[in-house]
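Homework help board

Subject: predicted structure for assignment chain

Our instructor gave us this sequence and asked us to write out the predicted structure in token form, then describe one feature. I got the tokens but I'm not sure how to describe them. Can anyone check?
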Amino acid sequence: MSQTQATADAATARAQAERFRAVYSKIQRELGKVMVGQDEVVEGVLSALFAGGHVLLEGVPGLGKTLLVRTLGRAVDLAFSRIQFTPDMMPADIQGTMVLVEGPGGTHRLEFQEGPLVANLVLADEINRATPKTQSALLEAMQEKQITVGRRTIALKEPYCVMATQNPVEQEGTYPLPEAQLDRFLFKLLVGYPKEQEYAAILERTTGTADAEVAKVSNGAEILELRPVVRAVAVPEHAQRFAIRLVMATQPGGEYSTKRVNDLVALGSSPRGAQALLLGAKVRALLAGRFAIAEEDLRAVAPAVLRHRVQVNFRAHSEGVNAEQIVREVLSKAAPAA
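My token output:
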């Protein structure tokens, strides 16, 4: 490659990175018109959108989980739908079904009526209230980007992103998500209580007469154009080794697992965890103006990537140890890859 070509390629990469940061910042500003605080959650949601992954938002009611995703649907010109899951909901309620339509002259024909899964951005509210049969329909959409109704298979248009919410406390009438479905979420983000100084802004925005005007500042085509920019971020060999060892450290009986992991973990992260670590780190590096990921990027995204991919055993429950604590311990003991 000539020096001129290399210079031109470097200039193109810088321009693409600047465009990515500009679009990201515009969407983030629009979300900030409605959301107060929750910066890490907002960043996680946006990172997943640009990385092409799904998000599980966990928190008690009233913290703005639904509001965040709905506002994202307003800021980005995407086909948006919301599903309020209930135990009596059937797969056809979210996929769609064949309906009998009356035509001219009293004729009738069967026509497929799309369900709320046929969208670009799907808000799956209280996902753990859906029965296993309905969750399996959602799982197909998340993993295969398609839905199957009878003998008909419908491809879902990209970008396709499911952002699901669940309450961590209420268990009555719920169906815990199976490990296979949890693994399909790029991030699990914990939505916590606001800080004291944030309550005033929340109350002003929600109990006054003013209504925040959220502008459409991006669209699906632009998101798809910027996803290759994220994937083009370089992964140095030492960073890749560190990501692999982080994932292996969560696997009981593995080469890098500690005694506590061996004693307290039933299931560790799958290779999808390593994939998610790299994708999340690439977004973070790009936002920092770097074209290669670093260990600090992997450490920053690791809790969101791994907390739902680690399943603790009965002994851990009896000792009051949860997956979050295991992940933090793995990170604290992880040594840089040589």
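Reply (TA_rk): Your tokens look well-formed. For the description, you could write something like this. The mean pLDDT is 89. That's the kind of observation they're looking for.
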